[in-house]
Amino acid sequence: MTQSSRHFGLDWLRIAAFGLLILYHIAMVFAPWDWVVKSAHTYPGLVAPMAALTPWRLPLLFAVSGYASRKLFEKSPSVQGFVRSRCARLLIPWAFAMAVIVPPEMWVRVLEKGYPFGLLHFWINDYWRIGTFYGRSFPSVEHLWFVEYLWAYTMLLAAFLGWAGGAARLERGVEWLASGSRILWAPLGLLIAAKLALLFVVPEQQGLFTDWAGHALYVPVFLFGFALGGSRLLWPCIARHWRMAGLLALISGVFVIAFELTYQGDHVPPHLQMAVDRSARVVMAWSMIVMLLHIAETWWNRDHPWRATLGEAVFPFYIIHHPVIVVTAWFTLPLGLTPWTEFALLFAATATACMAFYLIGREINWLRPLIGLRARPRLRPAARPDSVGSPAH
User: What's the pTM value of the predicted model, to 2 decimals?
Assistant: First the structure.
């Protein structure tokens, strides 16, 4: 596969995807579905637009992450170097967030069940337990499950690339996928078959060792993103079929929204309807990825003075946003504010915390790896004036 230059469109797509994720989590406070903290004001009108986002927002993140992984792999001296780099960039901020960022959210979760102590007491005495406490399971990774999955998929990818013939097999797979209209029907056939095979066999339960239905979708799109990062064959193929992908996304989206409006809350549909719903979600996820990749390639593939900063800020924003939403909602919703005031307050608090977390953290070199940023290279001390031109130098 050929090495390509930086794709600004994929940077913008990644920025937009994480921005949508943050807005989605704020909206969950007001949506009719169950979530961590709920407002007294719930709006059924949020069901349709949020249902239209749900099938593809996370698969898109894994596809873009796969593409970014390809670019990082190209810069690595070896597979082992790639593994070391990804472990440092993913596991260090994960560990920091588990120790410092997640505890306030878990504190709110036990407060809901009657926990009587403050945050400091909880963090020192109760957060580190293993098992069930006040109806909550500990430890809990909360929103950091995405980082866990991404690290695990990266390790599987590195093992595949390190295996003799792994890269060649991936290239042959790309060549096969880029032929005819296979980029549409082949992944859909594979993903739908995997989804239906697991649907009534394993629970749809989040967790690195329990979410087999999620892995069956996320791993293939992650690998597709990785392959896309080094292939010249797939982009023209995407350009040929993006309109059909858009049509499939529209049709499947109608089914997804209809099912969500019909079977709301804990109302479980019959097996046949559930199978159709899950198939429609898979169709929408894949077709939206294809269509959005074409949009990123055609209309967004240009630089801007803000792109580099926003792209760097995405991971720190992701790390901090979820606990901020939960804690802010917990302490402000009892005030009885109007719905728009509640939303504005949540949005302002989340945006302020995200920007402060990034802007402060990026300026402190020892903090940068903890919030998911590369450490700045140390500057070598300038040579003394009297040493310039001396025989020893």
Answer: 0.93
